[in-house]
Amino acid sequence: MVKIKLVLIMNTKFSELVQYFREIATQHIEIGHSALENHFYRFEIDEVLIGLKTVNYPALILEGYRCNLIDNKSDNILKDRTGAFILLDHLTDLGDFDTMHAIWDRLEGIADDIVIRIKKDKRNAQSQVIRDFDLSSVEYTLIANEQDKNFGVRCTFKILTPFSGDCDETKWNYEAVIAV
Length: 180
Hints:
Structural class: alpha+beta
Largest sheet: 6 strands, mixed
CATH topology: Alpha-Beta Plaits
Number of helices: 3
Shape: elongated
Radius of gyration: 20 Å
Number of strands: 6
Helix content: 25-40%
């Protein structure tokens, strides 16, 4: 009897994560992202320099992720991606602490909604990009930028996926001469 080990290697891309969070921003009623009114931003240098001076609030801003590999001295290598998104709103009067706290409360509620939606979507075969989203890794931090009068919630998360340790021989030219 031959045993076959089936390992599903998720090879999702950052662009798929961007599309997923754009969908979240579009479908969440309080965020209300649309083609006519942008409420979704990526934390990329060009978008920050060009677009974030005219932000529509509330805004969902997706940061790029960093990743590392975990091999635990075995064949079961994991790709550990750590990312974050920010929910941001604007406060006109910095001395209005009640409104400031109401903004934080509302944005934390939206963050809760997003995490619950991710939990639901993890079970959906169409949402492969967040299938391995680690709910126990989610952390919220209240943020404030008094200079721009922006207040929000920053949520960090991890996506831990199997990573193939097999070398794809079709991607290598072993006959190539080393350039000097």
